[in-house]
Amino acid sequence: MSTIRERAPLAGHLDSARLFLLAALVPLGLFFTLLWFGPVVYTVVVSFFANPLGEAQFVAVGNYVGILLSETFWLFLQNSVVFAVSTTLLSLVVGLGFALVVDERVAGRDTLRTLMIFPYLLPTVVVVYLWTLLLDQNLGLVNRILAETGLITDPIAFFATVELAMPSIVVASVWKWGSFAFFILLANLQAIPDAYYERAKVHGASPYQQFRDVTFPHLRGAILLILLVRGIWMFNKFDIIWLTTRGGPVNVTTTLPIDIYDRTIRAGAFGEGAALATIMFLLLAVVGVVYFLVLTPEAEVTD
Amino acid sequence: MSDTPTRRRYLKAAGIAGIAGLAGCAGTQTNATESGGSTDASTTAGGGSTPTTADSGGTVRMLSDRSARDIWEQSIQEFNSNSAYTVEVTWLPKGTSMNEQISKMKAAGNLPEIVFETSTDAYRETVAGNTAPVTGLVDTLGTLNPVVYQGDSYLLPAVTIPMMGVYREDIVDGEPRTRSEWKAEAKRINEEEGMGGLVMPSGRTNNATTQVNQNLWNGGVDIYSGPADDIEVTIDTGDNRQRAIETYRWMKELAAYNPNSSGWEWGDVANALIQEQAAAALTLGGLMILQAKANRPDLASKLTATPFPIPEGGQQGQWWAYTEGFYLHADTPNLDGAREYLQFFMSSDYYLQFIKQTPLFNFPTSLEQVNGDAYRSVELVQDHEKLVDIVANNWDKMRPVLATGTDGAPNIVAANAYGQQMMGQSADQLIAGDLSPEETVDWVAEKLRGLGE
Question: Which class is domain B162-320+396-452?
């Protein structure tokens, strides 16, 4: 037989545990309100104005319409997608490859694991400096080696050629951020019980079949996480592109964050910059929602 | 039924919120400088001094780049010990442009009284109503007067930096002056010496944008016309169109005998000369000589100065000269103190020390000072007297890009085009992209008109 308990007065709920919880959550709530929610709302509001820092004029969705109708928006969106997808997928492949090697009991695995963390620890500006020294047309080591071995006669302008600029930035980016995938995948690989592989071998599974039927299913959740998080980070990436090519030559490496910077800081069009930032926000939010609805990464945990 | 959230529901909610968070953080990051409220600067145009609330002194803040830091600091120390005002300087952070830093300071409501900037940026700020006049200082000190707006002066110029070419006299034959001579020589150098002839940079750099501008001027192209309040883009109208097409065509032909220099700033050009990838370059004053002297002293003595190439029968009517100096922010509390410090600095020995730190790069702001013993007696100037003579002999042609309206009227469209490096971008469309010279002229005309709207 069920009994109906009387609702205790609110004060009765505020025992020490709840007070502690409240004390912990209030600063967090204030932090998010002031430093996250506030700027987001401010950005959205500003996006409906022209010259918001001066004599602001309400233009409704004028900034949005202008951006979406501009000939460059779709090119820059395409560049952003190309950069984000290629760097994310290549980072995943490189990270997975190295993780599989380190997971095996091979000589030098500890050294390799230690080396993998270094690019991730380096500041982006240092990475850019390093890759510039490697690929620069005048000072670059790669050009020097290619020239001295007779493979080329004229130096290659890796960051200044229409065909090579984006691939060059992608390579530098994968070098810098590939270890993110490596460490996540390695941790997941090392969590797979050896018994699964032993049983697979007993049943005559080839190395490929072991990877397909044992390794990959256990990595699926981690791979989805990497695709999501790394994809968003790379879609928003500004520093490495700006520091290497400034979006050139002829806009082939101009992505949406570069365009936001151009509009906001260089052209002083804060309203347009805010509108473009909001468009990026919405694009990523939609991608994220679709990701969770279609790929159901949470099933990895509950299953 | 229990309404306790399941782990699956929690994960889904947390995941979507996380996505929104990541996207939001990224989306607003670039606009972080907007936070802090708007500024509502009001102009004090009309000349004269602006009343301040600090007759008995106060703090005067100055934003400056990092050049000659020790000289600035010494002068400030001396001024502070003899004045009721106290000058404090903010050095431009590395990797940050002056425009970016001012945008940030403006957003934070922390504008400095004095900014060391180009005349172009000073004019842009003036038109926006953000600056205070320095008319009295310009008159008293007898300097150039590059930013005049509604009868008042808004920039106290401290340095002039004229565009100048340099070439390797041991590689380049003769003394090429015209475009066709340079094209033939670049071809020969490329084929016989295995290096670039004359660097032709493109892209979103100050280097490329100034060079394209100067080349168009030398081609007789009037890019703009009209009074300050009604600037018209004329690069593609009348005879200008054909002259601009011929200029772009020459640039494209010359680029064929050079390394790919898309995105090259001044430093990249210097590297090309130092690494012997190119025999000649068009840059700022004696910058290349100074760079070579620091890194390849053996090359420095082989570099000789030359004006920008001209078409056959043409002449260089306008000569791009950066003018940098001080402007004052109107909405700041200690403008009288700022003026007092500037008068002190410009009248002191510190000023000439500042100029003489990079003597072939920075020129004084009057012809008398350029020809004066204090400047001419510097060893580096004596070693490269030809360069200084070229500057002195063409002094009347020197002008900032700003003064390119009719009869030298201030030109905000040109200032904005410079700020967005539009001319450099046009060269990128031409050289790195696939636009023809004709299409490039149409492209840049459309972009320039967009800036004027």
Answer: alpha beta
